[in-house]
Amino acid sequence: MTKDFVHITDFTTDEILATLDLAQEVKRRFHDRETFRPFAGQSLAMIFAKPSARTRVSFETGFTWMGGHALYLGPADIGIGKREAVKDIARVFSRYNDLIMARLFEHHHMGELAEHATIPVVNGLTDYNHPCQIMADILTVREHRGHLDDLKIVYVGDGNNVVHSWLRLAARLPIHFVCACPEGFEPDPETVALATGAAGSQVEVVHDLNSAVYEADVIYTDVWASMGQKKEAEERAAIFKTFQVNEAVMEKTGKETLFMHCLPAERGREVTDGVMEAPYSIVFDEAENRMHAQNAIMLMLAGLN
User: How far, in Å, are 168, 171, 290 from residue 193 at the CA level?
Assistant: First the structure.
């Protein structure tokens, strides 16, 4: 078992499936309000260079429910890579804590943190990838479909960090993954190459939304301008306007299709309010499962599964 969860591909196929099974069991315990304290007496350092409500609440609530103590360190508390060397933070926190979760801008800082820490490091997001989100996503898909067979996921929008983690999942599980994006907004080509043909997956990067969504089991989208890109928001809105997920797009799949969004959503931009509120929208199940998937990841890394 690997020490860290920096990329989804840090876990083997069997470890990913075991994590999903564990997440379902942990979720059941949470809903049944069972006493479950595997992290009693332990602490989780949560480093936030990039603020987030869902990431903080899900990790803090989950780790506390499992008996541990989670410490929030925001941008004003710790200037990772600026005020202090990343490798120094990694080694100091390893003396105080049992796990580290970090949500950072620069991906190389996450790699350096994991390299020098002697305790498990969980990637809460970088500009390159978002592995906890996609573990929650695939857990949610499996819950709603009952299985992961013959799965076609169509991501609509920017080829961003979410797409990179979907591609890395496709390198471990057989998925037909399509990224439908405007020209010039494709995902990292090395990550596309990593996933192409791996694990029996089929990977496509296309620019025609209408043909891409046909027979999709899941249509997935994200904001057009992520944190750090807000100055480009209006320019991107003009470029992405034909990539909005609306009711007409959902109807073009030709089958019963689920809708997903990693949140926060800008309703009326990348997705309509009607799609967000439709019966096929599983956005809030997906949001809840962030906590259960993350709890399972931490348990796996700590050897408490």
Answer: 10, 10, 27
pLDDT digits (tens, 9 = 90+) for 224-273: 987 666 677 889 999 999 999 999 999 999 999 999 999 999 999 999 99
Q: Assign 118 to helix, strand or coil.
A: coil
Selected catalytic residue, list 132, 179, 181, 262: 262
Q: What CATH class is the domain 131-286? A: alpha beta
Q: Across the chain, which distance is largest between two alpha carbons, in Å?
A: 55
Q: Is 262 a catalytic residue?
A: yes
* 81, 285 Cβ separation under 8 angstroms: no
pLDDT higher than 70, residue 1: no
Specify the CATH architecture of the domain 8-130+290-301.
3-Layer(aba) Sandwich (3.40)
The per-residue pLDDT for 234 is: 87
Quickly count: other Cβ atoms within 10 Å of residue 158's Cβ: 26
208 φ/ψ sector (left φ>0, alpha ψ -120 to 50, else beta) = beta
pTM score over 0.85: yes
Structural domain spans, the chain: 8-130+290-301, 131-286
DSSP annotation of 34 reads -
Q: What DSSP string runs through 132-182?
A: HHHHHHHHHHHHHHSS-TT-EEEEES---HHHHHHHHHHTTS--EEEEE--
**Parallel, antiparallel or unpaired: strands 218-221 and 258-261:** parallel
Cβ-proximal residues to 86 (8 Å cutoff; 6+ apart), any chain:
80, 109, 112, 113, 116
